[in-house]
UniProtKB/TrEMBL annotation:
Transmembrane segments: none annotated. Residues 1-67 are annotated as: Disordered. InterPro entries: Arrestin-like_C, LDB19_N. Residues 31-40 have a biased composition (Polar residues). Pfam families: LDB19. The lineage of its organism: Eukaryota, Fungi, Dikarya, Ascomycota, Pezizomycotina. Residues 111-283 form the LDB19 N-terminal domain. This is LDB19 N-terminal domain-containing protein.
Amino acid sequence: MPSLIRSFPHHSHGSAPGTIVDVDPSKLKSARSSNRNSADYSIRSFRSHKSSHRSSQDSLGPPQPGSLNIQIESPPIVCYGAPNDSAGALLSGMLWLTVDLWEAEFDSLKLTFQSVTSTKKPVVVGCPDCTSKTTDLQSWDFLTSPYPFSHGMHNYPFSYLVPGNLPASTNSQVATIKYQLLARATTSAGETLQFTQEVKVSRSLLDRTDRNSLRVFPPTNLAATLTLPPVIHRGGTFPVEMRLEGVVTRPNMTRWRLRKATWRLEERSRMVSVSCKHHGHKLGGEGKGVQYEDTKVLAQEELKSGWKTDYSSADGKIEFEFHPGIPAYVTSTDDVDNGAGLSVSHSLVLELIVAEEYCPRNSKMVTPTGSARVLRMQFNMPTSARSGMGISWEDECPPRYDDVPVSPPTYQTLVADVDSQSISSSDSI
């Protein structure tokens, strides 16, 4: 029989203060046992987690003597101008060696600036020598003999003039080019510390005057004149002006009407995958390679209106302006030609569909003749990074102000004869 337990006055959700509640002792025992079981389970899980954490720490081995880090202090690496005319860019920074132990002796500390060229279609898949090629451009040896380092942080400055003829960092459809700083330290006990940081190298072609291009389409009298920018940039649009002349033929009383215009921007990548010395027999000898090409459409658009037609002039003309561009969300790269088999170029392809019409003189009747032509044009569009201020490192100079002279002021030296009596009298005063 359930017992009656009188509770003290308190506020609860299910009953009013000071009420009498019926409690079953068997339920109290089951609740206590469930709480005890849950507590035992939590203790066991904590002990198992602690033991597993201790075993994972033991499996890591002894602690490392320290770590390496690289801090780049120079602005982004941008080579202005063509590869033959560029003066390069400055790369400077600080190499940090952090020693965690009270004292550690290092035998060597070296920093290397490398260029890594990798192909996405190697001769033998899985062979590192066929896939990538690493070239050391500059190295710094900070230690020539074993030296003990105390606990703390130790820094080593470095600087390098990146040559202007280096290709920019590239990630195309067939190959990649990247630059990196590789720091490596070796202790007297044989332990090795290593740190790698990627460095992006860009190229910017300075804007010049617009270029004009002429295309003719025999046997017709049609001629297209286009005004194109010298350089285009990713993530933006550029204007293109087109004028199509010779659309009217007076003796035959025919004219051409523009029906549709289509443009697209293409990226063409070309790479020669060279075999290593171990797999040269697959291509007939060491040093031979296989050429791969890939064409990717970056953007395209189809237009059916937006041009101005003038048939009143002698030969007639059609004027048209459009704004193509490479969207920012499309993966693309700048123009590259490293001279070792990798090249990336961009082109603008323009297609015009014109239809011939018969238009008698002094008549408003226009009859299509059924003849149509596709006028296809292709233009090379150099693509590079934006120039920004466009100032190379050799053209930079410190600021000058009008009120501040170029050099500190000079002082004149005055030599005069002084009477000794006057000096003694002044001392007495």
